[in-house]
């Protein structure tokens, strides 16, 4: 029978097998390094099946009623799904297929990619921050930074490059529209080039891969966290596993896969810039016993050298700033320096 590799971190990280390589060993149960303490596991009694996040038809996105529903969703839930977003089905399906092909590559090829990729363009990793975590997460991920076309051509893996690039080109238009609506509702009249650069100047397309897991109840696919983006645009497949924190701060709401939909969530940057009007809500992912799941978030981020803080427009009516000005690269480093820990990252920017 197969057994857990003696040097697990070496197997997962240095040899680039990832948790996919571990799952392929068909172990009867997960190694203790993946076993979450009881209090960190999702308590099924905390799931409220009668609640769900809004689904918004984006076809008439500049209709005031649609914009109101986006604003309501961003303030109340911090999460919503959009349908009719104009990214063609074929582009989405081709991308999903390419993501599976990427993770099916042999570990030697992934190791070669890891060793030859500049981390500011391509990063292949497992768990979240394995060197900062005492318990590992049941996930591998590839981050593709939406850099210059030249860098993309040089470094994004050929097996998924064209599909990922095509998807990003379409998604960019949707992202601009979403940010326009969200900012307009904060009294920002125009998404000028400078504001656009701050909010979406550094986008990352991530491929998350959660292999089928023999003990889904004891592992975290992704532990509770909020994203550190301005917004995140997430494409999930039809397996399911995403839960978001209910408004009572204690319950969890399931986010069902909806055919053709994208999940949108507010990240910490927009919570900070809106001085708390928009909420970046905690979420988590549960692994599946029999099926591999993929999800593909676009983290719409400020460039690392950007200073973020509450917008002058939201403070104009006399609101006290709740957050200080912080350098985004500092915020980013802080996020990755510790395990996922709910909403704690934003304390870094609190006054
Ligand atoms: O897999 C998902 O549905 C969400 C993943 C996630 O929260 C993240 O990558 O930040
Ligand atoms: Fe997330």
What can you tell me about this protein's structure?
The chain is an alpha+beta fold and 351 residues long. 31% of the residues lie in helices and 19% in strands. The protein contains eleven helices and 14 strands. The strands form three sheets. The chain has an eight-stranded mixed sheet. It has a four-stranded antiparallel sheet with strand order 6-11-8-9, with no helix packed on it. Helix 3 (64-76) links the parallel strand 1 (55-57) and strand 2 (79-83). The mean pLDDT is 96. The structure holds 2-oxoglutaric acid (AKG) and fe (ii) ion (FE2). 2-oxoglutaric acid (AKG) binds at residues 206, 208, 222, 227, 234, 236, 242, 283, 285, 295, 297.
CATH architecture group name: Sandwich
Low-confidence stretches: none
The name CATH uses for the topology is Jelly Rolls
* Full CATH superfamily name: B-lactam Antibiotic, Isopenicillin N Synthase, Chain
Termini, distance in Å? 55 Å
| Mean model confidence by pLDDT | 96
Shape category: globular
Please supply descriptive tags for the structure shown above.
single chain, 351 residues, alpha+beta, Jelly Rolls, 8-stranded mixed sheet, 4-stranded antiparallel sheet, 31% helix, binds 2-oxoglutaric acid, binds fe (ii) ion, Oxoglu/Fe-dep_dioxygenase_dom
């Amino acid at each position: 029978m197969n057994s857990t590799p003696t040097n697990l971190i070496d197997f997962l990280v240095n040899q680039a097998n990832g948790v996919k390589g571990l799952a392929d060993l068909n172990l009867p149960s997960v190694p203790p390094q993946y076993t979450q303490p009881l209090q960190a596991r999702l308590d099924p009694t905390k799931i409220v099946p009668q609640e769900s996040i809004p689904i918004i038809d984006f076809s008439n996105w500049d209709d005031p009623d649609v914009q109101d529903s986006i604003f309501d969703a961003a303030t109340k839930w911090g999460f919503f799904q959009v349908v009719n977003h104009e990214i063609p089905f074929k582009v989405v399906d081709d991308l999903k297929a390419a993501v599976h092909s990427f993770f099916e590559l042999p570990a030697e090829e992934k190791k070669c990619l890891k060793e030859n990729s500049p981390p500011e363009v391509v990063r292949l990793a497992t768990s979240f921050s394995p060197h900062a975590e005492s318990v590992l997460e049941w996930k591998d991920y590839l981050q593709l930074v939406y850099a210059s076309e030249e860098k993309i051509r040089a470094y994004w893996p050929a097996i998924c490059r064209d599909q990922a690039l095509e998807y990003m080109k379409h998604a960019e238009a949707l992202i601009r529209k979403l940010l326009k609506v969200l900012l307009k509702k904060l009294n920002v009249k125009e998404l000028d080039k400078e504001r656009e650069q701050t909010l979406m100047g550094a986008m990352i397309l991530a491929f998350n891969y959660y292999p089928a897991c023999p003990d889904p109840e004891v592992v975290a696919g992704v532990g509770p966290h909020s994203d550190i983006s301005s917004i995140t645009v997430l494409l999930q497949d039809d397996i399911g596993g995403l839960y978001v924190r209910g408004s009572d701060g204690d319950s969890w709401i399931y986010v069902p896969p909806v055919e053709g939909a994208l999940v949108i969530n507010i990240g910490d940057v927009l919570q900070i810039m809106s001085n708390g009007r928009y909420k970046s809500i905690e979420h988590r992912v549960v692994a599946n016993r029999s099926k591999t799941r993929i999800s593909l978030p676009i983290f719409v981020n400020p460039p690392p050298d950007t200073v973020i803080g509450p917008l002058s427009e939201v403070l104009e009516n006399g609101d006290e700033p709740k957050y200080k000005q912080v350098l985004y690269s500092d915020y980013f480093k802080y996020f990755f320096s510790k395990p996922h820990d709910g909403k704690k990252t934003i304390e870094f920017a609190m006054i």
